[in-house]
Design a protein that fits this description.
Elements lengths: L1 H13 L1 H14 L2 E2 L6 H4 L9 E3 L7 H14 L7 E2 L7 E2 L20 H34 L4 H12 L2 H5 L6 H20 L3 H19 L4 H21 L8 H24 L1 H8 L38 H4 L8 H10 L7 H18 L4 H6 L7 H22 L6 H22 L6 H19 L6 H18 L4 E3 L2 H4 L2 H12 L3 E5 L5 H6 L15 H5 L8 H4 L4 E6 L10 E5 L2 E6 L1 H6 L2 E6 L11 E10 L2 E8 L3
Parallel strand pairs: 6-10, 7-9
Antiparallel strand pairs: 1-5, 2-5, 3-4, 8-9, 10-12, 11-12
Helix pairs in contact: 2-5, 5-6, 5-8, 6-17, 6-20, 8-9, 8-10, 9-11, 10-15, 10-17, 14-17, 15-17, 18-19, 19-20
Length: about 650
C-alpha cells in the first residue's frame, strides 16, 4: 500500500507543472477565486442574488480585499486600465503605486498576476489573479526547498505546504503583496542557483533578466513592513548559495558586463517608474497616516508561540485580544527548528553554511521582534520602516527554513522515549504561552486538541528518520495546514452578485445618459467603494492618498489638514451651514474621517449625483435643487444636483 502511494506521489511530483497548468485553466474557465466579495450581499442586496460562494465563507474582516482592493481593481476595467484613474477619489489618482492596480503599461511585467484583468474580463481576471498567485507560490516554494534540502522531494513538498498555506499568508493573501514577496524572492534565489550552476552565457543572460523582473516585482510590492525583514532572509539564502557553490562558479569578463547591464536595466526601469509617480510618493510620505515609520521593534515574544492557536482562527474569532488577521502567524513548529539545528551542529557534527547564516538572520530578527533596536540601528538596518509585529512573518519563514534544512541533514532518528518526553514538555510550554496571550479564547476541548496536535507533530519530527515517520509527519502537516490555511478564503465563482445587482445596473444607466461625479452621502465606507464598481467617479471612494487640492476648496485656511492629509475612508454628510455646530472635518479613526458639506460646497466639488439612504429634498434651496432620479433600490436612492436658473 505504501509503495503504491509513493509511486502516485512520485508521478504527481514529476508532472506537477502540467497538473498546475490544467488546474489553473480550469479555475479560469469556471471563474473561481478566493475573494470575499460575497459580503456585499449583506450591505446591498436583499438576498435575491446568490453570493457565488461554492465552499467556505466570505470573511468580513478582510475588508481591505473585498471592500477596497477588489472594487478599485474592478473600476480599472471601466477606465481603460489607465496609469492615472479618473474614477478613484473622483479623478486623477495614481494607481500604479498605492494598491498597484492593473494598468495597460509595460510596468505590468513586474506585476504579472494582474495581466488577466487586461485581457480576460473582470471575473476571469479575478480568477487569474487569485489562483495564479496561489499556484505560483506553491510551485516556487517547492523549487526553493529543493535547493534548501538538496532535492529531497518529500521535505520540499512539506516546506511548500507550510509556506503556501501558512495562516499569515492566507489571511493577508490578496493585499500588500504577501504572495508576491514569497514568489519573487523565492524565484530570484532559484534563478541565482541556476545561474551559478551553468556556464552557458545565453542561459545566464536569461537568468539575469528573470532576476531583474523578480527584483522589480519585489520592490514594487511597496510594503516595506514585510519587504525589508523578508529581504534579510532571502539575502541569507543567496549568500549561502554563493559560498556553497563558489568553487564551481566561473565568472568571466562577459559575465561581469552582463551583470552590470542587468543592474543598469533594473535601475533605469525603477527610475522611470518612480519618476512618473514622484508626486504620489511625496504625497504618501508627507501624510499624517501612514506617513513615514520610525519603529524600534520589540514586544512580540508571545507571537513566536502562537502558531499553535492558528488552527482555530478560521472557525472562532471571539475572545481574541486583537483580531484573527493580526493573530495569524507562520506555522513554524517553534522551537523544533532551533533544536534540530543544535542536533546538526552537536550530535551530527555537521558544519552547514545554510544553517549558520539562517541562524544569524534568525537571531538578528529575533532581537528586533522581542527586544527591539536602538533608533540609530533600526534606521541603519531600515527596519525602522517595518514593525516587530510584521517582521514576525520573516522570523517564521526563517524558522521553517531552518527546520526543513535540519531535517534534510539529520540521518538518524532520536530515541523514542526521549522524543516522547521532549514532545510533551514542548507542547505544554507552547500551549501555556498561547493560553496566556489570549486567556478567554480557549475552551478545554481546544486546549486538548492543540496538545494532541503539538505532541504528534513534535514526535514525528524527532523520529522523522524512523520507519513510516516521514509519511505520518507529511499527512499530519497536510491535514493541519489545510484546516489552518486552506479554509481561510472561500472558493467562489464569478462576480454576478456585483454585476447583476439592480443598484450597479441603475448607476451605470444614469452615468451613460449623462456623465458626472458622484458621492455617497451619509453612508461612507464601504458603500462608497461599491458605487465605484459601477465604473463611475466617486469623490469619497477610499482616498489611497490625500487629494489636498480638493479639500482645500472646502478648508481654504488649511485648518483641518491633519484630518484629511491621510489614507482615508471618507463619510460625507450633507448639512445646512447652521447645522454644522463644531468641526467640519472629524477624524473617526486613523484611516477614516467624516466631512460635513453644505449644498453649496457640493457644487464647489463639481458633484452631480448623490447615492444615499436619506431624503435630500429638504435641502432644496432657491438656487440649488436635489432631484430624486431613482427611488428605493433596496432602501437606497439616487439624487441629481441641479443649479436652479431663473
Amino acid at each position: 500500500m505504501i509503495e503504491k502511494i509513493n509511486k502516485t506521489c512520485d508521478f504527481l511530483f514529476k508532472n506537477r507543472y502540467w497538473i498546475a497548468i490544467v488546474i489553473f485553466i480550469l479555475c479560469i474557465i469556471f471563474e473561481l477565486s478566493g475573494s470575499s466579495i460575497g459580503i456585499w450581499n449583506q450591505f446591498i442586496n436583499s438576498g435575491d442574488i446568490d453570493d457565488g460562494v461554492i465552499l467556505g465563507v466570505s470573511r468580513e474582516i478582510r475588508s481591505d480585499e473585498w471592500a477596497v482592493l477588489t472594487p478599485m481593481t474592478f473600476s480599472q476595467n471601466f477606465d481603460g486600465f489607465s496609469y492615472f484613474s479618473n474614477l478613484i477619489r473622483g479623478g486623477n489618482t495614481d494607481v500604479s503605486m498605492v494598491y498597484a492596480l492593473p494598468i495597460m503599461n509595460p510596468i505590468q511585467i513586474f506585476r504579472p498576476f494582474q495581466i488577466g484583468f487586461l485581457f480576460l474580463g473582470i471575473a476571469k481576471g479575478l480568477s487569474f489573479f487569485w489562483y495564479g498567485r496561489l499556484i505560483a507560490l506553491f510551485l516556487v516554494m517547492i523549487e526553493l526547498f529543493m535547493i534548501i534540502t538538496k532535492k529531497n522531494k518529500l521535505l520540499s513538498f512539506i516546506g511548500s505546504v507550510l509556506i503556501t498555506f501558512a495562516p499569515t499568508v492566507q489571511w493577508w493573501f490578496a493585499v500588500n503583496g504577501i504572495a508576491e514577496i514569497f514568489i519573487f524572492g523565492g524565484l530570484a534565489i532559484i534563478l541565482l542557483h541556476q545561474y551559478i550552476l551553468t556556464e552557458n552565457f545565453k542561459k545566464r543572460c536569461l537568468y539575469l533578466l528573470g532576476m531583474v523582473i523578480c527584483a522589480g516585482g519585489y520592490v514594487l510590492v511597496l510594503y516595506p513592513a514585510w519587504q525589508i525583514p523578508m529581504f534579510y532572509v532571502f539575502l541569507a539564502i543567496a549568500i549561502s548559495e554563493i559560498i556553497t557553490n563558489r568553487k564551481s562558479c566561473k565568472i568571466r569578463k562577459k559575465d561581469i558586463i552582463s551583470i552590470i547591464i542587468a543592474l543598469l536595466l533594473f535601475v533605469i526601469c525603477m527610475g522611470i517608474i518612480f519618476v512618473n509617480s514622484l508626486d504620489t510618493i511625496k504625497a504618501v510620505m508627507n501624510t499624517v497616516y501612514p506617513g513615514g515609520r520610525a519603529e524600534t521593534g520589540g514586544g512580540q515574544v508571545t507571537k513566536i508561540f502562537q502558531y499553535a492557536m492558528n488552527i482555530f482562527l478560521p472557525y472562532k474569532s471571539d475572545g481574541i485580544i486583537t483580531n484573527v488577521c493580526e493573530e495569524a502567524t507562520m506555522f513554524t513548529l517553534f522551537p523544533m527548528g532551533l533544536i534540530l539545528s543544535a542536533i546538526v551542529f552537536g550530535k551530527e557534527q555537521k558544519k552547514d553554511i545554510y544553517l549558520v547564516l539562517l541562524l544569524i538572520i534568525y537571531i538578528f530578527l529575533s532581537i528586533w521582534c522581542i527586544i527591539g533596536f536602538p533608533e540609530i540601528i533600526a534606521k541603519l538596518t531600515l527596519l525602522s520602516n517595518s514593525t516587530a509585529k510584521r517582521s514576525i512573518m520573516a522570523l517564521g519563514f526563517a524558522e521553517v527554513l531552518i527546520l526543513i534544512r535540519s531535517m534534510s541533514i539529520i540521518k538518524t532518528p532520536q530515541r523514542r522515549f526521549v522524543s516522547i518526553i521532549f514532545s510533551i514538555i514542548l507542547s505544554v510550554i507552547v500551549i501555556g504561552i498561547c493560553q496566556n496571550a489570549n486567556p478567554v479564547y480557549f475552551s478545554t476541548k481546544m486546549l486538548i486538541a492543540m496538545f494532541i496536535m503539538c505532541i504528534y507533530l513534535f514526535f514525528c519530527i524527532f523520529r522523522y528518520q524512523a520507519k513510516y515517520a516521514k509519511e505520518l509527519f507529511c499527512c499530519g502537516i497536510v491535514f493541519v495546514m489545510l484546516m489552518t490555511g486552506a479554509t481561510v478564503n472561500p472558493i467562489r465563482s464569478g462576480v454576478n452578485n456585483i454585476y447583476q445587482s439592480e443598484i450597479i445596473t441603475k448607476i451605470q444607466e444614469i452615468q451613460k445618459q449623462e456623465e458626472g461625479k458622484w458621492i455617497v452621502e451619509g453612508l461612507g465606507f464601504p458603500i462608497a467603494n461599491y458605487v465605484l464598481m459601477a465604473g463611475v467617479p466617486v469623490i469619497n471612494s477610499t482616498n489611497v492618498y490625500p487629494d489636498m487640492e480638493k479639500w482645500h476648496k472646502i478648508d481654504t485656511e488649511g485648518k483641518y489638514e491633519d484630518v484629511y492629509n491621510r489614507y482615508a475612508h471618507i463619510t460625507i454628510e450633507l448639512k445646512d451651514e447652521e447645522e454644522i455646530l463644531e468641526n467640519k472635518f472629524v477624524l473617526t479613526n486613523a484611516d477614516s474621517f467624516t466631512v460635513y458639506l453644505t449644498p453649496e460646497e457640493l457644487q464647489k466639488l463639481d458633484i452631480k449625483y448623490i447615492f444615499t439612504a436619506n431624503n435630500l429634498e429638504e435641502y432644496n434651496k432657491e438656487k440649488i435643487e436635489f432631484k430624486k432620479i431613482c427611488d428605493n433600490i433596496n432602501g437606497y436612492g439616487i439624487y441629481q444636483l441641479y443649479e436652479v436658473k431663473k
